Structures are given as structure tokens and as C-alpha cells.
Amino acid sequence: MRVFVPLLLFSAASAFVTKKSLIAPTSTTTSSARLATEIQESVRFRTGSNDASLSILLVCGAAFLLLSKQYKRILWPGSAPDPTSDAPLPPGSFGCPLFGSNLLAGSEDYGPNVFFDRRRKRLGNPTLFKFYAFGAPAVSVSGGDAIKVALKDEFQPDGINTMMVSDNFSQLFGKESILYESDKDKHGMLRRLVGAAMSPAAITTAIPSIQAAANNQIDRILASDDTVIMEDVCNDFTLDVAWKTILGLDLKDDEVEEFREKVKGWISGMFNPLFLLPFSVPGIKRTKAFKGHEYLVSKVEEKLSKLDKDGPDGSTLSAMYFATDEDDTDDTSRKLTRQQVIDNSLILIFAGSETSATTLTCASLILGLHPGVWDKVKREQELIQSEYGDDLTKASLDECTYLDSVLKEMLRIKPIEGMELRKTEKTLVIDGQQVPRGWFVFNNVKETHINDPVTRKDDESHMDVRKGFDPDRWQNNATKPSAWLPFGEGGRRCLGERLAMTEMKIFLATMARKVDYDLVNVGPGDKVKWKKISAMARPLDGVEIKPKKAVPVAA
């Protein structure tokens, strides 16, 4: 039978092409028999075989061809358009049957999630395009206006909502974090209580601790007699902020390294396909990601027990744990549960370490490529330091207007690649195209920045780390980008935005006051290479630098 399979497929295809009249609107049985007879004659002619056993296969093949209009429903379940909507589906294709496209793949020329960039270019850069991933149909939505339409009915029972990707994934990031709460009232309560730990007053209190962590890492750079990998420095800095400021832990030196390794292992689960599968996976609890999660939960539990005994201590975790809902301060049920505190603490660790560390690593690269910009950052710090002294405060950070523009420009060019995920509870119509009920919606931040009409250039050089990086564009309303969504949009905009920006400002301000440096692996004519798998684009070499003590900028 092996001999006949390729010939059977070829013959079926031949008959389908040359005998289109056979697939006329007649009964399925009659048409199948006709088509089977025609194909059988074709096979007999090519093979000399009269094997009757082929008849069953041929009839099945003919029936499949007759039902070919339904093949998308079979190969990509749930991908059919909503028949009650007159709007067409967005352009695009569904990729591998049942599984769809590999969204995690990257390239050294582009970085992670290269699928989205390749697909949009192939389709002519549309606002919406469809694809299939993780066993479900989805649409990429870009552009500020289109994203606002998509999110207009967020939290409505028949609108659009977030959801946990899989039960496996929930074992890493928790089911009770603010990210995955779809009930409007419960989400509002979580946002108020978690937000209490992210208030301006709370961030101001955290500034000395964050500056101490920054000084520790910058002094480590200057103490090196060799080159330094900035990715390692930035990772360690943000993780130090995580255990000191966010969790309020008291770790000894050997425990600090264990904490860093466990967090690294935990975050690796985000890029492990096993955690995205919709069914239980044997052995998943033996992975580094799961063990990292268990370690972090144990540390949070220990800290909560200490807070129960000793009371508030000024950490972010403490602020969440003791926060009461401003709408009903006398009702103790309006406090976060222990599990909600744990799950939201983990989300803050991820957001405050992985994304901030990546942005700072990229900043080290891009500022090394633009020494004139680095001089402007240094000069601003020299002026601020002369007025406010060495200690950073909210007042002095508010004066870092050029540094603020540098960070915003960084996040414009290199925002998070993995986008925000939602699921439709009803069919949406966006830009005249339908997104059927039950489909995933990916709010495409990167493409939104690419197509911003204020900054866009046809060759897309405005997104290039050499040609497009221009912090001065943020100093003028006429050139300021009209679309900037690195922290999301709508009711789920990142609560940690203020902490992240403060953390990154403090690190770069401290570095500008103490360090000058040269890039080791990326010269003027060298192409920048990127890591293939990460939440945000990270330089392939980790940004290796040769540091030296900072020289004041001439006034």
C-alpha cells in the first residue's frame, strides 16, 4: 500500500483539477462514487493495479474533496467567520494545521517574535491580520485607534477579556493576579489595592533603596579590571530591587545569588512551550521554572508571616498586604487575600526585573552607539547634582527631563515584543473587519509604534537603533510620537509603570554620574545582533563594555 499512497494523492489532485465538473452540486454519494471511479481509473492507468481495497480509500478521498469547503474548520478548529456578520475576516493565513504558527521563534537580525514582523510585511502592513497559534485563531491589532476599539468593551460579559493561557501557565504566574481577573468589580478592587503599593508616595519612599542598589552595581562596574557584560549588571540590579524593595527580604550574600538563579529559572517558563499546552504535562513540576516558582512563593510566605508578627515595614509587599480598599476601609474583606498578595507580588517581580533589565541593557547598547546623547545625559546629571547633591529624590528625578526622553525613545524602538492578549466574548468589527467570538486578540505594540504617522518613515529607519534613535523628538510637540504603548492601554495599563520608570531613571542617572564606556563588540559599521528568545529584544552579546571613570562634560 505504501507504493499507492503518493500516487493516490497525485491522482486525486489530478482528477480534481481536470474533472472539476465532477464536483457539481449533486448528492454526496453520487458525486463521491463518480469521483472515486475517475480517480481509480487514473491510478490503474499509472500503476496497472486493480486492487479493490483502493475503493474505500478513494471514496473517502473523494468525500474529503467534496467537503473541502469545510477543511479550515477541521484543520484549524474555531477559525470559521461569524455568519451573522457581513464584515470579512482580516487578511492572513493559519499556518500548521491544529497548531498554527510558532510565535516564540526569533532571529538574530530581528530578535524575538519575528513571526509578527514577517507576517505584517508579507501582507502589506495591515492594521489587522489573522493567524493561528496555540490551537486557537487570533488577530493581531495595531494602531492606537484600532486598539481602543478592541478594548472599548473590556470587562463586559459580552465584550473582550483577558484569560489564563493554560492551567500549566497558571502554576507559574498564579490565577489570582490582577493580570487575569476578568470581573470588572474584582479587577477594580485589585487595581486599587495593588496600586496602593505603587502610589507616588510609595515610590518616593523606595528611592533611597533603589539608589543604593544602583550604586552597588555601578561601583562593581568601575571595580572591574576587565570588560563587563551589562546584561548581567542590569539583571542583578533589577533583581536586587526585587528582593530588597518589592519583597523586603533580608538576604545574605550567598542567598542573593540563589534568589537570582531561582528567578531566572522561573522566568524561563514563559518561553517553555510545555507551559502553554492546554493539558497536564507529566514531569512539569521538576522543571527549573516550577521549582523557581516554589522558591519564590516560599520566600513571600516567610515574609508575610514576618509582617504578621512585626507589622508594616515599607516594602512594596507590605504595602499590598496591609492595604484596605479606599471605597470601604472598615470592611476587612476588602483587603487582598494571602494568595492574591503572593500572585501579584510575582507579577511585580517579573515586570520589575525582566522588562526593566532588558530596557536598561538595550539602553547601554544604544547610548554606546550615540555618544552625543550620552554626553547630554551626563550634562543633565552634572547640573542636577550641583543643585540637589548626590542623593536622588523625587524632586531631582523630576528634573531629569532629557533622561526621561531617552527612556521613552528606548521603549518606542524596543517595546515588549510579546504583546497583550485578550479573548473576544462577542464578534467585534474593527476597521471594517470582523474578529469572531472566541478568537484571541493580540494588541500589537511594536507594529503600532512602527506605523505611528508622526514618526514613520517608509524604509522604517525610524525604528532602527542607529538611524532612528532620537530622544529630542520628545522635546517638541510637533515631533512627539502620537502612539506610545509600552505599558499597555486601557483599564489594564501596567500598574508598575511608575516604579519601572523610576528604577530605570535612577540606574542611568547613577551610571551617567560615574561611568564612561566603549562598546567592545559593536563598532560603527557592525550590524547589531539580537537574542532569539526573550520577552523583549536583548542584544546577542549582552552588551560587553570597557568601562572607565566618567570625565565631566565641557559646559
Q: What report would you give on this structure?
A:
This protein has 555 residues and is of the alpha+beta class. It is 48% helix and 8% strand. The N and C termini lie far apart (84 Å).
List keywords for this structure.
single chain, 555 residues, alpha+beta, five-stranded mixed sheet, 19 helices, 10 strands, 48% helix, globular, disordered N terminus
Structural class: alpha+beta
Order of helices and strands: HHHHHEEHEHHHEHHHHHHHHEEEEHHEE
What is the straight-line distance between the termini? 84 Å
Radius of gyration equals 28 Å
* Shape label: globular
Tally of strands: 10
| Unreliable stretches | 1-32, 42-47
Strand order of the largest sheet: 1-2-8-5-3
In short:
This protein is α+β, with helices and mostly antiparallel strands. Helices cover 48% and strands 8% of the residues.
List the helices and strands and how they pair.
Elements lengths: L3 H15 L9 H20 L6 H13 L4 H5 L38 H9 L5 E6 L2 E6 L2 H8 L8 E2 L5 H7 L10 H12 L4 H24 L4 E2 H17 L6 H16 L19 H23 L5 H7 L15 H32 L1 H18 L5 H5 L2 H13 L6 E5 L3 E3 L2 E3 L4 E4 L1 H6 L46 H18 E5 L24 E6 L6
Parallel strand pairs: 2-8
Antiparallel strand pairs: 1-2, 3-5, 4-10, 5-8, 6-7, 9-10
